[in-house]
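Retry 2 of 3 after timeout on previous attempt. Resubmitting structure tokens to design endpoint.
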């Protein structure tokens, strides 16, 4: 490990960045250094600009992926290398505003019925029933399921914040049946080894297979189930602020985008075309 990488890891640990963020930053900086075949210490603003153009024009990366690289390089040059030109010279890409893909309740049922394996069926149902991120569901422990209070404790979710979400009675029954089959002792959804939680990559793979088996034409990922959870709550009349808390969103702006996909809000609006006379 190079001294610069070691210093960057230490600086990220001091700031208590999540392990996932640390890995992504290190990977992006390593990709930057590999592109030029030089240490980042020997590279400057024009090299960063050239690399950003390479990512856009040749690799065709999305704005969100580009901005992870920007965050990583800003951290490296501003925090680790103390370069005073960082803020002005490493520019964020404007993010596209895209609405989330949402399944109808009937499509959710079709998808769940196509999942093979009780463990993966249980974890994907948990993601939908509680609106969890895939990383949050994978990290659940047996002790996080509170059947007396009917809550699920989400420990250190995005932004390293704890929160509670509701435990669906139907989901509780499914988790009890799942537990009888697998008898997990610590992690609710263990991986190949009982000492480790299930890999998010394996959950995504099962999700892809189930989508194909179900015949659904929409793209379905674990995050699609989370989007569907929020949208279905909104369509059922749940207060937006309550949905924000359940989702673990820092800002209500993040939650408000579901108002653009909730079909009841759209269907209740009359088109001016229907009020035209003389047609």
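Retry 2 succeeded. Sequence:
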């Amino acid at each position: 490990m190079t001294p610069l990488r070691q210093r960057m890891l230490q600086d990220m640990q001091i700031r208590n960045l999540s392990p996932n963020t640390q890995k992504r930053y290190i990977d992006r900086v390593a990709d930057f250094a590999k592109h030029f075949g030089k240490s980042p210490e020997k590279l400057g603003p024009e090299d960063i600009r050239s690399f950003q153009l390479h990512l856009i024009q040749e690799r065709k990366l999305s704005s969100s992926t580009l901005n992870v690289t920007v965050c990583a390089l800003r951290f490296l040059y501003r925090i680790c290398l103390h370069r005073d030109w960082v803020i002005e010279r490493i520019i964020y890409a404007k993010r596209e505003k895209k609405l989330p893909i949402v399944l109808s309740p009937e499509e959710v049922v079709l998808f769940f019925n196509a999942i093979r394996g009780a463990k993966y069926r249980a974890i994907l149902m948990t993601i939908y029933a509680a609106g969890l991120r895939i990383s949050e569901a994978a990290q659940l422990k047996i002790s996080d399921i509170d059947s007396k209070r009917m809550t699920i404790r989400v420990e250190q979710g995005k932004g390293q914040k704890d929160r509670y979400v509701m435990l669906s009675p139907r989901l509780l029954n499914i988790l009890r049946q799942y537990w009888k089959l697998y008898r997990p002792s610590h992690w609710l959804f263990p991986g190949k080894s009982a000492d480790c939680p299930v890999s998010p990559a394996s959950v995504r793979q099962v999700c892809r297979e189930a989508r194909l088996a179900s015949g659904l034409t929409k793209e379905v990922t674990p995050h699609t189930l989370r989007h569907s959870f929020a949208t279905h709550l909104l369509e059922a009349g749940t207060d937006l602020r309550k949905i924000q808390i359940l989702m673990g969103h820092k800002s209500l702006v993040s939650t408000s985008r579901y108002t653009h996909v909730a079909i009841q809000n759209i269907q209740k609006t009359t088109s001016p075309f229907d009020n035209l006379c003389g047609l």
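Attempt log closed. The mean pLDDT is 89.
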